[in-house]
Fold F-box domain-containing protein.
Amino acid sequence: MVCSKLFSGDLPEITNEIIQYFRGDFSTLYSCILVNRLWCRLAIPLLWENPFSNHYKNYQNLQKFHYVEIYLHYLNDYDKAKFNNHEIKINYFHTSNTLFNYPSFIKCLNTYEIVQSILRRFDPKFNLVRYKIFQSTLQLIYMSLFKIFIDNEVNLHAFDIQIIDYIILDCFNCAFELILQNPNFICNIRNLKILIDGNMADVTKIGLFLSFLSSNCDSISTIHFNFGEIDDIRKFSSLIYNSQQNLKKISFQSNDFPLFHSLLLLKNSNCSNTLKTLIFHDINFENVIVILKEVFDHLNVLESIHIINCYFINSEFIQQIFNLNNPFKLRSLSIDQVHETEVEPLQLLIQKSNEYLENFTMIISDEIELQLLEQIKKFCSKIKFLKLCELNKSQNIYLLFDIIKNIGQNLNYITISSSTIKHSPLILQGLGQILPSKLEYLNLSITIVASDFELFLKNSHNTFIQTLLIHNNEYCHHQWIPQPDLNEHDILLYLKKYIVEKKRIEYLAYKNSTRDLIVSRDVVKRFESYNIKVRNYNDLIIHYYDYIEKNY
């Protein structure tokens, strides 16, 4: 009864909640469009809130970027006439009657993705040599898109300013005056990202934009800064801290980021009683150790700290942490390389964080890292996200098994990689029986022998895996499996028998060294007949930083 009411549209509030759950799952949202008018009306805004994103383009297989043309359809006749001299036929931009006001749905803009979408649609062979030829056309389309969004009074929630080359910088500068004339366009921004390549010489207008933003927007809750010693940006970014009323999350990224200046600003800013999350990514702590206690003791409601591949975590750093009056709630720790002088400080940091640490990743390249894994095994039982790469020694693998058993049902996300044929069977033979009863995500990047894979699937029969990714790296380090075609056939057979037919997963991705399963249409069709969603392997990968940004 309830199900029939949902499909008939009699329960619009509940239907809306269901549709919202599918945000980002574009194939499902497209299916929702076909159910009825209500479902279509609820799904369309989600499909059009961020059409420039890479996720959307990947699903479309980088085809035809028609959403750019649909947007240009909304230009008035005067603005359409500007395209006459650019070899673009404006009357090609679809019909005069669209079912929805698509520009009004936009919530997120990314300067890099807008430029890439335009280039791939109108000049797919674009290169730097052709830039002078296509420059004026590119900038006209870019400006026109911003004008359309402004004229349609969009409610912009996220603005990602990525300036990684002069092409994007020139486009942003062209739209700058238009934005200044329309402060309502940016007045409701919640998420702000600034990524500036250190080689950009003149970013004056970006600095002025930050000043303008600080005067016209006080709704920002999340800030991501990724730039080096750029005076204009550093000066005006300080205005952002003090102008926001509800700043909850800040992410600092780049090994030459001016962290000293930014941390001192946090100490004396309005966010001392609002800031809940701090993310440090690829940061060098050397020059800020002396102020860590001073700053963190002024952040009164800080709930989560995340350290991702940072440098200079030494004994002085740890001493500052131990001297804090407030708890140092380290939720995430990612380590890609460890210096000998950092081993003991990191061990102490892991011990101190045992109550809080929920996400841990490490590349195991030396015996040094084993000491840190021992600490994880001994002290950390609340980990949800575990990623260990280069498991190329038996000792490492057995230690991994102990960690998984100790964590138990708390563990939701696991990524394991090994680049040797010798150790992949050990992983498959021992992993299945120790997995928790339910996993959100399991990603195995190893060299698979079909018989070992069958054993893994049998042993893990009590585990439901929401998203399963398998990368069969058959030819790693110049080693290869005998009879790879037969081995591949058996792997897919076992996947179907033990996983697909028993519906133990919802999403599946599989690839070998040469191709992705998604291109094998017959196999995909058979698997999807069991209501399993097969996706491109790269599309389903959960990147550590993205996971943290989404969940904290």
